[in-house]
Structures are given as C-alpha cells and as structure tokens.
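Sample entry (530 residues):
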Amino acid sequence: MKNILLICFFYFLCIPLSAQSITVKDIEDASKELLTSGNPTMLHLYQELEENYPQMTDEQKAVFGLKYTEALDATQTPVADLKYLDFSIDYYARTNNKKKHVHALLYKGRHYKTQRNYPAAIQTFLKAKDQLNPSKDFNLLGNVYIELAHLAAYQDEFSKSLGYTNIAIENFEKSNYQVNLTASYVLKSWIYQTIGELDSAIISSKYVLEATPKLEQKGDALNDIGYAYYQKGNLDSAHYFIKRSLHYPYDHKNGAIRFYHQAQVYTDLYEYDSAKIYLRKALYDPIDIYTQNDCYKLLVRLSLMSGETDNLAWYIAQQQICADSIRKIEMQPNINTIEELHKTTKETEEARTQNTILAIVIIIIVVIAALILLFLHKQKKKVSDKADTYKVELEKKHETLLQELHYDFEKTREKYAEKRKKADFIQRQEIERTIYEEVLYIDDEQKFFSKMNAVLNHLPDKLKAEYPAITSKDIICCCLFVLDIPTQDIAMLMDYTQSSLYKFKQRLAKKLNLSGSKELEQMLREKAEI
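Predicted structure, serialized as tokens:
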C-alpha cells in the first residue's frame, strides 16, 4: 500500500513540471519518501523527473542533483553522470550555502572513491573539510573525516587514518549519531588489525557489538573479532565469531570479506572443500578488488595443497589480473602528497585572492589619494607659507633667546667686573661659578633644564627620551658643549680637569653609541637646531 501511494505521489509530481508547479519542497519530499522506503526500484521515478530537468529553475536543478545523488548513494547505485551533481556543487558554492555544498562534495568524493580514483576523492573531501572548518555540523564533519580515514587506510597510511578516525569519532560523539559513531569504530578495529594491535581491535569491535543498533554493523564486529582471534592463532574463537557473523546482513562488499575470512579458518583447519565453498561465495558476491585478489591467492594455495590443479592456471591468471589492477591503484599519488598539493593550492588561491583584494584596495587608495592630492594641491601654498612663517618665527625666537643668554652673560660679567679685578685666582673661579649660576642656574637642575629646553630646542628632553642610560650630569655637560662654553669653564663647573673632561666626552660618546667626541658634538648641535 505504501509503495502504491509513493508511486502516485511521484506520478503527480512529474506531470506538471513544465508549468513550474513543482517546488523545491516537492523534490525534497520525494527524496525523503524514497530514502524512507529504502526500495531501489523506486529510483525510476527520479529518472522520470530527470526528463523535466531542463525546465527546472537553478534552485530546483541544484536540489534535484543533490537529492538524486543522495538516493543513488543510499541504494548503493553507481552514479552514471556527475553533471547534475556538479551543477549542484557550483550552485551552492555561488549561493554560499556551505552545508549543502559540503553534502554535494561528499557524494562526489564517494563517487570517486567507488571508482578507485583516490586522488580525486581525497581532493574533493579536503575541499569539503575546508568548507566546514570551523563548523557545528558535527555529523557532516565526521562523515568527511571518516571518508579521509578510509582513503588513508587504503593507501597504507594507517597512522594518518587513525588520526582522521579519532577526529570523526569526536564529531560523531558530539552529534549523537550512533550508527556513524559505531561505523567509525568498525574502521578503527580494521586499522588496529592491520597494524597488529589485535587486543585494541577486539576492544573496538566489542564496543560496536554492544553499542550499534544496526544488524549489519553487529555482523561486521563479529567478523572483525573473529579475524583478530584468527591472527592470534586462536582458530576455535575465530571460527565461532566469523561463523556467527554470517547470520547477519551486510552492506556493500562486506559479505565477501566475511566469506573469505571463513575460508581462511577452514583452510587452517584442513577442511579444504569447505574453504573452497566459501571462497566461491565470496567471489559471487559484490567484492572489493583486494578481497578478490586474496580469494584467488587462497584458491591457488588450496589447489596446490589438495592436489586438485584443474583450475590452477585460471586461478593464477585471475589473481594476476587483480594484482595488475591493484598495482595501478597503488601507483596513484599518496594522500600525503595530495594533502601537501592541496595545502599549496589553497595557499596560492588565498594569496591570489589577497592580491586581487589588495589590487582593488590599491586602486581605491590611488583614486582617493588623487582626490586628496588635488585638494592638497590647492592648499599646498597656503600651508607651505604658513609652515615657513612658523619656522622663521621659531628660528627668530631661538636666535633671540641665544642673544638674550649672551647678553645676560655680558651684563652679569659687568656686574662682577670690579670685584673680579681685585680677586685672586681662586676668587675669580668662584666669581665665574656665580656668574654661570645666575645666568644658567647650574646648581638647580629643574631650572637649568627648563631654560635649556627653551634655548636649545628641547635638547634635555630629547636626550632623556632617546638615551635612558644618560645621567643629569651628562645632559648638563651636553648643553654646555652646545652653548660653546669654554672648555676650562666647563671643567671648572663640572669639577673636572681639562684632560679628564676630554676622557669624559669619549666615555659619553661611547655610552650614546657614537664613534667619538666629534660625532657627539655634531649630534648635539643637530638636535639643538630648529
């Protein structure tokens, strides 16, 4: 009854599409019904919709391509043509619908994986991963990582595969999607078996057996436990678990793997006829090329051990065909190479995008700059004249301050002229010190620096800011040098002899990372100028 209703639904869905009566929701509902029914024969109804594809809007085409491929994937039907899915990928990229874009990339990557085109599959899944990071769609992100884990395992990159599997598990745990979570543990068990960590493999499989609601996964877990015991050499346990797994349904090509493992157990138990029966079952089921190769290898071995060599040549030929196919697959670029290429390509694209943005920004800046320059050109003379006037005023003020300073020295010396005539050498020195104190406030640092900042274009402040290691005494000396105070007077004021003053200048130059006293004097005069 349900299938009849579904047929009617699709029938009325397909008739009036040319009149634009079908909506995006109709296509999505049709896909939901098909996936719920799980009936592969219902795919022909989607194929009827395909006839009206040219009349669909872009949005309808994108939804159709994604949902049609989703239905094919769910029913394990190969995708014959990627044109519909490619349109969906392009559309969702253009409309920035990341979630649907990644879904479409996921199905395209699975198509490549089925075709054994591992490089294309890896590149597609890496693109999907880039779109999702960062993302809160943990189930979708987990699906991308588990696909990359499978591909890494196919290329014997088990450490990388285990890393991807653990990331997938983390995401599936966050999404609470139990079937995908246990599927990740199925893969983890297989990786552990392959690298010889059999106890870890059994633990992963037992978790699947207890946690999964899916019968197919229970069968896979039993098979994996049995095969781990087989590798340990425990044939009784291996036979028990693998035999139990045969009573469970299986997905894709897992049935052939179970039959092959059962044949291995029977071979080691010397039950050659039973082993051949299960090998034939494996070869008649959908089978992976690697399992097929192993089956023919075991058939060759059984023929030689049993002495039944009638089909030996054919088995060897078939095994060689499989080996040749596997060799071609293994010649494909490794996942590490593709990841590195993807990273380089991504960085190149990002650099190209940044360069494009930079070029646009530069053009905008140039245009704005041109407008500003045009405006500034009109203001230039006015501003220039103003600046020149201001500089001239500063220079005049500076010159005036210096003249006033020299005038103060003259007036103060006149004041002490009579007293200086009557004084002895020591008294004269004291008079000179008094003159300098009255004019420059040598003994009051704050007043001295304030006056020197005004007269010498803020020389003390500049020296303090640029040379933290310099002392107040050093700054006083520097100011006296610039004022062209006689050397003997500077030595007297600073309590130096003339020779020790010379050494002081050398030490000060070194402290300021200068080559010598000449460079020191040049630097000080430059800083004191307007």
